[in-house]
Design a protein that fits this description.
heterodimer; A: mainly beta; seven-stranded mixed β-sheet; four-stranded antiparallel β-sheet; B: mainly beta
Chain lengths: 115, 112
C-alpha cells in the first residue's frame, strides 16, 4: 500500500514570496489533514478536509494561507506572502474507515525555510 | 491554549532501560489517547493508543498507563533499544472526526 506522498521535500524562499505544497493521500482515504510542525513542537492542525469539503480550518491563518482539495483526492496548501515565522515542516496526513481520527497516516512532510 | 502537556522534553536512557513519558490533558471529554513515534525526516506514525475504559494497554515492548481521575497517561518502553531513539508525541481527541491535539513531544535517545 502506497503511503501519503508529499512534494517538494524541501523549499527555501525569501519572506513575502509565495510557496505551494502538494499532497496525495492514501488511495480511498476520505479525510485529509494539513499540519504545521515548528521545530521542537508537536504538529498543529491547519485544516481538515472530508472528501472535498472543509471540516475544520479554525487555525488556518486565512490572510496568508489557503488550501484546496479539488475532486476530493490530492490537495494543495499555499502560503502567500510568507513570513519568517512560517518556517516549519508542513505535514499532510490522511485517514479512512469509520473512526476517521483514530489512525492518521502522515507523509514525510515539506520542510520550509523562510529567509 | 495547550490542551495536552507532555514531559519531559528530552530523555536519555541506556539500552535495556525503561523510559517513561508523561502526558496530562485538560478536556474531560477526550476519549481516545494515541502515541505517535517520529524518526528524523519522517512523519509521525501511530504507535499505540488507549481509551479511558482501561487503565493499561500493552503492545509488544510498549505500554500505556492511563489514570482517568488524574487526567494523565504515560508511555513506558520496556527493554529499550537504540532503534527506539525517536521523538514521541502523545495526543488526545474525541472519537469520530475531531482533530487530534498533540503534545510538544519528547526526544528519546537510547544509548548502547
Amino acid at each position: 500500500e502506497a503511503g501519503v506522498a508529499q512534494s517538494p521535500r524541501y523549499k527555501i524562499i525569501e519572506k513575502r514570496q509565495s510557496v505551494a505544497f502538494w499532497c496525495n493521500p492514501i488511495s480511498g482515504h476520505a479525510t485529509l489533514y494539513w499540519y504545521q510542525q515548528i521545530l521542537g513542537q508537536g504538529p498543529k492542525l491547519l485544516i481538515q478536509f472530508q472528501n472535498n469539503g472543509v471540516v475544520d480550518d479554525s487555525q488556518l491563518p486565512k490572510d496568508r494561507f489557503s488550501a484546496e482539495r479539488l475532486k476530493g483526492v490530492d490537495s494543495t496548501l499555499k502560503i502567500q506572502p510568507a513570513k519568517l515565522e512560517d518556517s516549519a515542516v508542513y505535514l499532510c496526513a490522511s485517514s479512512g474507515g469509520t473512526a476517521l481520527n483514530e489512525k492518521l497516516f502522515f507523509g514525510s512532510g515539506t520542510q520550509l525555510s523562510v529567509l | 491554549q495547550q490542551q495536552v502537556k507532555q514531559s519531559p522534553q528530552s530523555l536519555i536512557v541506556q539500552k535495556g532501560g525503561i523510559p517513561i513519558i508523561n502526558c496530562a490533558y485538560e478536556n474531560t471529554a477526550f476519549d481516545y489517547f494515541p502515541w505517535y513515534q517520529q524518526f528524523p525526516g519522517k512523519g509521525p506514525a501511530l504507535l499505540i493508543a488507549i481509551r479511558p475504559d482501561v487503565s493499561e494497554k500493552k503492545e509488544g515492548r510498549f505500554t500505556i498507563s492511563f489514570n482517568k481521575s488524574a487526567k494523565q497517561f504515560s508511555l513506558h518502553i520496556m527493554d529499550s533499544q537504540p532503534g527506539d531513539s525517536a521523538t514521541y508525541f502523545c495526543a488526545a481527541t474525541l472519537s469520530g472526526n475531531t482533530p487530534l491535539v498533540f503534545g510538544k513531544g519528547t526526544r528519546l535517545s537510547v544509548i548502547a
